[in-house]
Sequence to fold (622 residues):
Amino acid sequence: MSCNCGTPVDKLIPQTVKVVSIRQDTPDVKTFRVVALEGEELFDHMPGQCAMLTVPGVGEAMFSITSSPTEKGYKDFSIKRCGLLTDYLHSMEAGEEVCVRGPYGKPFPVDTEFKGKDLLFIAGGIGLAPLHSVINYVRANRENYGKIDILYGSRSKDDLVDFDEIENEWLKEEGINVYLTIDREQEGWDGHVGFVPSYLKELDFPPTSTAVICGPPIMIKFVLQALIEMGFEKTQVYTTLELKMKCGIGKCGRCNIGSKYVCKDGPVFRCDEIDELPNEY
Amino acid sequence: MYTIEKSKLSDLFGAISASCELYLPVKKAGQNNFTKYEAGTEYCDELKTVKSPKDMFFPQSENIVSFEKTDGKIKVTPDTIPTEKTVVFGVRACDVASFDVLDRVFLSEPADSFYKARRENCTVVATACSEPEESCFCSVFGIDPSEPKADVATWFVGEKLYWKALTEKGEELTKAVASVLTEENADGTVEAEKAKIKEIVKNLPLASLSLDGWDGDATEAKFDAPEWEKLSASCLGCGACTFVCPTCQCYDIRDYDTGHGIQRYRCWDSCMYNDFTMMAHGTPRPSQLQRFRQRFMHKLVYFPANNDGMYSCVGCGRCVNKCPISMNIAKVIKAFGGDKS
Ligand code: SF4
Ligand code: SF4
Ligand code: FES
Fold:
């Protein structure tokens, strides 16, 4: 049963894809664009879903798909350099091949709960990667959503992922407000300085939007606290959890937390659902 | 009902293995384990195999896909889905029940094609436990060792093996080996044997364990309980309990360089190991207490929550026999007050 046709015999079997471009976003984040080989197709996904990237012999890991499903023909992955596999990926050049399998997990409820709502996106650092997919999906289906606020912060200006796209596209669109912040003063930066949670309190959004948070666990914690203080209910707030994964399909046991498997029941959770999980993430 | 003389078992095994691969308990180097039958292989009638028969469907390690890289191009070749017809003989009632637990995991969408093929290609011949032991507590999970529910149920009584097909697959196997079996109305003998077994089971030391309070909703009540600290204090994190356990199903996926390509395989893993949940920035379960708790919470709370109340333990008692520090699920249940005696 040899097959390189993109319709694997099992969800565990990856397909080969070509890396067509690699963009350096920040000193330690690159965005990889992959396409199916000639005559083959890549799976469809929804915003928030993930895929397993394999470099044979080096390793395999789960990454959030950064591109929106409305961008056809390719998938983007914004990847921070932080280990063996990501070191290897960062050393690659456009034109090389890797393998991918997916999509995995439950997406953001973009076509249900999010519909008709004002949306408030809050991201820190590489946390913009999973939100990037939702934001561009929402932009492509603008009529289905209300006002959009995006609050994004990073260590420095150079660590803001997708800065060009934010500046040249998002900032220019009507009905979208983008608030950027960096942790410390920096030459050439005349925007806001300070951490995301405190900027959020300053901005004092009315608690009528649906909020989506993504970033380091400590940021998520303080942002959630701030939102509650501002009058948001946990049922209005979504985030993603990150645990070690291997199979992606709820079988290898690795990402089990309470009665949930992050790979299939997540990575997207509503904050009231997270409250029901044992405190082990 | 059919019978065959115990002295003629090799005829039965010969007849089964004529058309498929037969696995049965065999003692090798002092250890009883399910082993492939070859002419001359002796059936071992000890109550328990060291490892459970989960290997039949979920081997300890198995290749799933290979990669070949030439001139920068990657060729992906999935490993062949197994097609051999198999029979596994001598499976105890607890282990038969463990297959239901594994099915819940591997056959739920998206089904695992490797497991599914092995499971479908296999006919399970179970054997009632003539003499359940002190470490057994299958009855606590509603399992009756006098009446295993497999494709074929068998009983060893006196000098004979009694054979009864319970499913279509079982009927087919019975037909295939009919020439070595004798049809006999032996219901009385088998009923008497069942009654004898039931009486033993009732009086086993662990039969009084109670699962009251353990269910899918018990996370809040159990997770932060002080009991875990004492229970887990001497756990070595060796993982022996998970490896011998018929229902433990966690696995790892790894690659190795074969010299002319990369072979990806999966192998059993253990939630008791400290690197099980390790990520680049750390692990959510840094202490052995957390890992220990995870194993038992999963079996007695999280698994039932997702599977209509089914526990992920069948009371086979292997962990009772094998843990080097004599810790086990029976002690965990007891420590939380689960003893009716
Ligand atoms: S936890 Fe122990 S008694 Fe229960 S099925 Fe596993 S090995 Fe058997
Ligand atoms: S066999 Fe015993 S010591 Fe080893 S991991 Fe299991 S409970 Fe801990
Ligand atoms: S990654 Fe295997 S169960 Fe979630």
Notes: Residues B 244-247, 313-319, 329 surround iron/sulfur cluster (ligand 1) (CB under 6 Å). Chain A touches chain B through 46 residues (CB under 8 Å). The two ends of chain A are 40 Å apart (CA to CA). Helices of chain A lie at 84-90, 128-140, 163-168, 196-203, 217-229, 262-265, 271-275.
